[in-house]
Write the structure tokens for this entry.
Amino acid sequence: MIGFLIKKTFFDIWDNMFRIVLLNLGFIVSLAFPVILPGFIPTPILANAAAVVGILWCFVYLAAAALSIKAVSDYGVFGFADFLTNLKAGWPAGVIMGLAALFSFLVVRIIIPFYLEMNSIVGLLLGALIFWTLILALLSFQFFFAIRARLDTKPKKIFKKCFIIFFDNPGFSLFSLFYTLATLIVSLVFAMLLPGPAGLLLFLDEGLRLRLMKYDWLEANPPAADSPRRRRSIPWDVILIEEREKTGTRTFRNFIFPWKD
């Protein structure tokens, strides 16, 4: 399943490279607001307020991008009008996730150092507990926008399903986090234009989409759902037959000269 996920993500990025680059370019421009704009505001309070608003906007943009990327994951395309529609639909989830990110930043920047500076076992334990709680949240919330795009619109239910996906798929969640870190490093080489944030959102949406197929299979095979051993041995080769047919295989020539086939 992991191999097919990486393959399909790469194919979809290649086939929709122009759209992916445009989404990433839009995010880079959005990122300039919280990073650069506050430097031109002399009043500290207003500068901080501008940074916060800019960060929230970046998350709203990511929410709209995730809703748009869903079409690519489903073997379709999206246009500018679709992005504007998704911007209107996704802004509440973007704001909430942005606030969660800001809160996490404050915890790392202020609360954890406060406990560590206590120079006591209690402070060390509390600091460690908060740190690992944030790691758990990071592993779970990486699917936030994909879940918003595919499963639910209510923030409370989205957060709940984030934890459900993580605890039922810890190995996949950990792999996704490492994939995200590796992709960000590669993206720096291409000035964040490829694969960039849009490529990461596509990977996470593709991954969630394939994981949901597992639950469809478990629902269609009730005895398997009652057996922990069978839940760990999902027949991905059977589940992904149709997906592999749709995705197909390509040679290097197919990538460079697709019109010659």
